[in-house]
Amino acid sequence: MIKMIVIDLDETLLRTDKSISAYTIDILKKIRNKGIKVVFATARGNSTKPLIPYELFDGCVLLNGAKAYADNKLVYDRMIFADTFIPFLRKLSNNDLKVAAEIEGVHYANFNVKEVWSYIDKFVVTNYSNVSGNADKLYALVENPSQIDLINSILPKDLYLNLSRDNLAMIMHKEATKSNGVLHIASEFNIQKNEIVAFGDDINDKELLLSVGLSVAMDNSIDEIKMIADYICDSNNDDGVAKWLEKNLLTNN
Questions:
Q1: Residue 107 and residue 118 in one domain
Q2: Do residues 124 and 234 both lie within one domain?
Q3: What is the pTM of this model?
Q4: pLDDT of residue 253
Q5: Dist CA 167 CA 214 (whole Å)
Q6: CA-to-CA distance for 249 and 253, rounded, in angstroms?
Q7: Reduced DSSP (H G I as helix, E B as strand, rest coil) percent helix, strand, coil of the chain, to 5
Q8: Hey, what's the signal peptide range on this chain (predicted)?
Q9: Buried b (16+ CB within 10 A) or exposed e, 183-216
Q10: Longest dimension (CA), the chain
């Protein structure tokens, strides 16, 4: 029996234009009315707030697993200390990489973040000489394969690198994963991992999909995700998540 669903956002729940259809919203409401918990898990931080109605969800995993919330209660937190990320980002910056650290919703970057993502308003252009506080997530814009080799060659031992299909290198605390965040939320709700179904499309969803009871890949997923999923649903632009939920959790149940 499924007691919790977990949904990635970009290219999964969200359409390419970052919208959610009225049909999908209606299905999520019906799922919750059946007593099934609904959670989203994303690499995004505060940029989720303008995109989705938070009242539709019982919990969320943000920043690829750096933070997880159940009913607005913080239940998991894995940040990157300043004395780790500042020298690391400065080395990358000195090698002409565009890099950033997200700290309490503000992007501290060596480039104009808004020129890349128009919806991000909270950013500071910096050389990291005057930055303080611990980071939830680091990232770099990868423009050629040699930059990945450089990042890995100086990557601190307590961090890991995830490269998305849009060449965004996300650098996280080793314990900051979507699966860790989701399982902590599930524990708050007394739900076992085999009672969870998860939806995803990209490489940073792989560990999550392998850690739950049922996994669903989007039709627009990368091949590596399709290969490990139990099911493949329609694409994000065709309300794939909602159609799968209606067919498998609402119809004749």
A1: yes
A2: no
A3: 0.86
A4: 52
A5: 28
A6: 6
A7: 40, 25, 35
A8: none
A9: bbbbebeebeeebbbbbbbbbbbbbbbebbbbbb
A10: 60
Tell me the average pLDDT of the chain: 94
Among 173, 189, 216, residue at a domain's last position: 173
Q: Which amino acid is at 207?
A: E
Same domain for 164 and 43? no
Amino acid identity of residue 19, one-letter, is: S
Question: What is the arrangement of strands in the sheet containing 137-141, beginning at the earlier edge strand?
Answer: 123-125, 106-109, 98-103, 137-141, 168-173, 159-163
Nearest to 133 by CA among 112, 107, 99, 103: 103
- Is the separation of the CB atoms in 236 and 12 below 8 Å? yes
Shortest CA distance to 8 belongs to which of 228, 253, 197? 197
Q: How many domains does the chain have?
A: 2
pLDDT of 79 over the 70 cut:
yes
135 pLDDT tier (thresholds 50, 70, 90): very high
Q: Which domain holds residue 166?
A: 82-173
